[in-house]
Design brief:
Layout lengths: L1 H50 L1 H9 L1 H17 L3 H11 L7 H24 L7 H11 L3 H31 L2 H15 L3 H21 L3 H17 L3 H7 L2 H30 L1
């Protein structure tokens, strides 16, 4: 009886230790991000008071862009303590930076088709309009100056999120549990990170797909490329009404999702071919 009790306690300790290993990178990122945001918010207020009403009015008129840039700077600050963890995880997997151009092209096509296809599906079903929180977030994101948005959503945001969620969290999950558990759990955590139901569903789907692509390719650059292209596809399409009129229809949505399924099948088959070739 005593031995069983010890085993149970050991299992509980193991569970909490694994949970801490997985969640610590995100908690660290979150704390540093918010600390940086408080510092920038204080600096912003100080400059408004220093340079007067005209400066304040200008900054208020461009509030979405200012907030976006501040968020981008805080995001970069947040990943600084996580990058050493990423390097360690990549070293343990023995990753190299190069990957085949054909695989990169397939990843980009898949990123465009699935991101736009899911957006079309969520819009056509009315699900995208069901969350006021999501609407507020979307208004802020699309209110950013276009050039700034390209950098924020095409480079900074995808890189930081891939460092945390695929580079560190997914790699730890697959090592502590299994790749399948890692794909599902890292996707669910990525969805929850977005803070509202609409982006949560969207983020979970894409998060699991990005983890799957990472597992098949063994290259951290693949999910980063996917994330960047997906963000840019959605961000630019939101400003092109004529394109939305074509894609955000039942037929357009169906075509996009079929293309996505074909790309996933191609990725799966190419992964098998690569493994078989290496085995020989």
């Amino acid at each position: 009886m005593v031995e069983k009790g010890k085993t149970g306690g050991g299992n509980r300790q193991s569970f909490f230790w694994k949970a801490w290993e997985v969640l610590f990178p995100y908690l660290l990122y979150y704390l540093v991000f918010n600390a940086a945001y408080l510092i920038l918010a204080f600096a912003y207020q100080a400059t408004v008071e220093r340079f007067g009403e005209g400066y304040g009015q200008f900054m208020t008129a461009h509030a979405a862009t200012v907030t976006g840039v501040m968020g981008g700077l805080c995001t970069l600050a947040g990943i600084l303590p996580v990058v050493p963890m990423l390097k360690e995880e990549l070293r343990e997997r023995g990753e190299t930076r190069r990957f085949a151009p054909l695989k990169a092209a397939l990843t980009a096509i898949l990123a465009c088709s699935v991101s736009l296809g899911l957006n079309a599906l969520l819009t056509l079903t009315g699900f995208a309009d069901s969350s006021q929180t999501y609407q507020k977030v979307a208004d802020k994101q699309y209110g950013v100056a276009f050039a700034a948005g390209l950098v924020l959503y095409g480079v900074i945001s995808p890189f930081a999120e891939e460092v945390v969620f695929r580079g560190v969290i997914y790699n730890r999950l697959r090592r502590l549990y299994s790749p399948a558990v890692g794909i599902v759990m890292s996707g669910a955590l990525f969805g929850a990170f977005h803070g509202n139901l609409v982006q949560g569903v969207y983020g979970t789907c894409l998060g699991m797909l990005m983890a799957y692509l990472y597992e098949r390719s063994g290259k951290f650059g693949i999910p980063f490329l996917f994330h960047a292209v997906a963000n840019l596809a959605v961000y630019t399409t939101a400003r092109l009404e004529r394109v939305q009129e074509i894609l955000f229809t039942p037929a357009g949505c169906a075509v996009l999702l079929v293309v996505s399924a074909g790309c996933v099948l191609a990725v799966h088959r190419s992964g098998d071919i690569t493994k078989n070739t290496l085995a020989k």
